Amino acid sequence: MVTNTWYQYNKAWYYLGLDGTMCKSQLVESSGKIYAVDADGKIIAEPGRSRQIKPELCRCRY
């Protein structure tokens, strides 16, 4: 099973969490950076655009 990794599909990026399921509607911490993913799991915010987000708010971590 693939876990704790980014997955690209149709030019969009998604994150697979600890149990291998796609993280959705949450913040993702990966390699010390924070990303936001939408309800479909697609990345919507990259580091630099979400600097005000605190790591402790992340529910899906690497």
Quick summary of this structure?
The chain is mainly β.
Describe the structure.
This protein has 62 residues and is mainly beta. It has one domain: Ribbon (left handed beta-beta-3-solenoid), CATH 2.10.270.10. It is built from no helices and 6 strands. It has a 4-stranded mixed β-sheet with strand order 5-4-3-6, with no helix packed on it. A two-stranded antiparallel sheet has the order 1-2. The model has no long low-confidence stretch (mean pLDDT 79).
Tally of discrete structural domains: 1
Proportion of beta-strand residues: 35-45%
Task: Write out the strand line-up for the largest beta sheet, numbering strands in chain order.
Answer: 5-4-3-6
| CATH topology annotation | left handed beta-beta-3-solenoid
CATH architecture: Ribbon
Low-pLDDT residue intervals, each spanning 5 or more residues:
none
Succession of helices and strands:
EEEEEE
Shape: globular
CATH class: Mainly Beta
Mean pLDDT across every amino acid position: 79
Rg from Cα: 11 Å
